[in-house]
Amino acid sequence: MLRQNVPRYTSYPTAPHFHSGVDAGLLQGWINALKDDDELSLYLHIPYCHRLCWFCACHTKHTRHYAPVATFLRALHSEIETVGRLMSGRGRVRAVHLGGGSPTMLKPDDMLVLGKALRNQLDLRSDARISVEIEPRDIDEARLDALAAIGMTRASLGVQDFHPKVQKAINREQSFRSTKSVVDGVRARGVKSVNLDLLYGLPHQTLESVAATVAHALTLQPDRIALFGYAHVPWFKKHQTMIDDAWLPDPAERLAQSQRAAQLIGDAGYEPVGLDHFAKPDDALAIAARNGGLHRNFQGYTEDNCETLIGLGPSSISRFRQGYAQNIVSTGEYEKAVMTGQLATARGIKLSLDDLARGWVIEGLMCNFAFSALELVERFGEVGQKLLCQASRLAIAGSGSLLAMDGNDFVVPQESRPLVRTVAAKFDKYLEMGTARYSVAV
């Protein structure tokens, strides 16, 4: 069971099943169907880093020069203008997420210009949440000031592991002192929410090194912690071949590392959120998890319940009520498309009622380890009834080990929750239809 390779389910259907049948014309129709008062989120993908980390599976590339970044930014501004024109004032932006790559490699003035463009071209609410993925090795006082000026409300810092041997193996040498300096810097500028990303399953990690990293991270009093398992996919990201398979912990050790880290974080007073997130009890994410308002998108677990997410930048993915649309992955080809005033859509998938029903079940499992049988049928009718029969067969065949009935709910038992991705995969009709390869479930 531990060796099963399954998707992370930040969407359903997952990206390997997108196809070219969704193009710019179809996406424009989806944009035109938005209502004036629809609330939506934005994701901006910055596809550059100063230095490439060997563990990373993101669409990014390293550059020692700023000229390619400046060229990309001109294209990004063009895309923002095009999308703003097509929106024609429809929709209100409630949340913005800057990711990558490394958004914080942008020069301070470019950060300010980008923030202004978003507010000028799209209808950002005055209280819009602005989250930024921060690379501590990029940041300086001027960049922190610029991020504060554009309204950053949440900072997410990549830590991964503080052990020097592990850092060397993943090409990411980052001291605790520099990380603390950034945390202190964003808080001094009024940012109330700080997230730290930690990884287990990295090369040369041990139970002791993972525990030490968690202990150091906890001294920074983050509001949230994301605890991810390293996804070793060298067939997908060639730079991961720099990590020798022999350096990686085996599946049992990975599970032990994740459980030890989760125990330490929980003992420090953090509440578990979904599969791999933790938050202080008064954090919005923990509150959403307690109240049944937790959601999952391409940035992971979120309290953001906007139905529409518009992705900007190469490889970024948008979600509309009608389906998913992904931009061109190649930065150069993306730039050519958007500089002519076109949308950069390369592929996607239209959602059927069956897709929506299965996606609802999978999100319920990933977020709450449960879903309501009654609500499934009420929402999706005959399609929901068929899924209900499938869930019942799974619960009976597994004698409740993976999925069990609790009153009107199907639930994943506590001992099986580390394998919730495996449970979710049971409802994925596309999984056996493609040739995509995935990372291990734990």
List keywords for this structure.
442 residues; alpha/beta; nine-stranded mixed sheet; three-stranded antiparallel sheet; 13 helices; 19 strands; globular
Characterise the protein shown here.
With 442 residues, this protein is α/β, with parallel strands linked by helices. Helices cover 37% and strands 21% of the residues. A nine-stranded mixed β-sheet has the order 9-10-8-7-6-5-4-1-13, with helices on both faces. Strands 14-15-16 form a three-stranded antiparallel β-sheet, with helices on one face. Helix 7 packs parallel to helix 8 and helix 11 (353-368) packs across helix 12. 45% of the residues are buried.
**Radius of gyration, CA atoms, in whole angstroms:** 21 Å
Task: Tell me, briefly, the overall form.
Answer: globular
Catalogue the unreliable spans.
none
Question: In which order are the strands of the major sheet placed?
Answer: 9-10-8-7-6-5-4-1-13
Which secondary-structure class do the elements indicate?
A: alpha/beta
N/C terminus separation: 10 Å
